[in-house]
Design goal:
mainly alpha; 52% helix
């Protein structure tokens, strides 16, 4: 194996693995803007246990998708810790997802987020013309 390639592989070192996990975590909706030392320890414990990064990513995506609520529903509280995903990690270690499923989860989450936060310039948001009511 090429040593340069192994240095770029997040699974090759605990530091790279933890950084990769924390980056994935930070990109999810409803996660804190900053990670904590507890989150870093959680990610390191997954590295020490040999949990593949693909399983971690699938668990983060799957758990995030499971939290999605229909429009108008009361939102769930924000995720406070990476430990929130531990049960899904265990679930996926016992029942691995099929090949290509992580890509499907990525696309599904992206589509949901795009619909929730449209940036469609062809249909700009309604802009109020005046601060005065016409009902006077």
């Amino acid at each position: 194996m090429n040593s340069a390639a192994s240095l770029l592989d997040p699974a090759s070192s605990p530091v790279s693995y933890v950084i990769a996990v924390l980056n994935l975590y930070g990109e999810l909706p409803d996660t804190p803007p900053r990670t904590t030392p507890h989150d870093q320890r959680q990610a390191r414990s997954w590295f020490d246990r040999g949990v593949p990064l693909s399983v971690v990513e699938a668990a983060l995506l799957l758990a995030s998708l499971r939290r999605m609520r229909p429009p108008g529903a009361t939102p769930l509280p924000r995720i406070r810790s990476l430990a929130y995903f531990q049960p899904v990690i265990e679930e996926l270690l016992e029942n691995p997802v099929p090949e290509g499923y992580v890509q499907y989860l990525r696309i599904k989450l992206r589509n949901i987020l795009d619909k929730a936060n449209p940036l469609d310039k062809a249909n700009p948001a309604h802009v109020q013309n005046s601060t005065f009511s016409r009902d006077r």
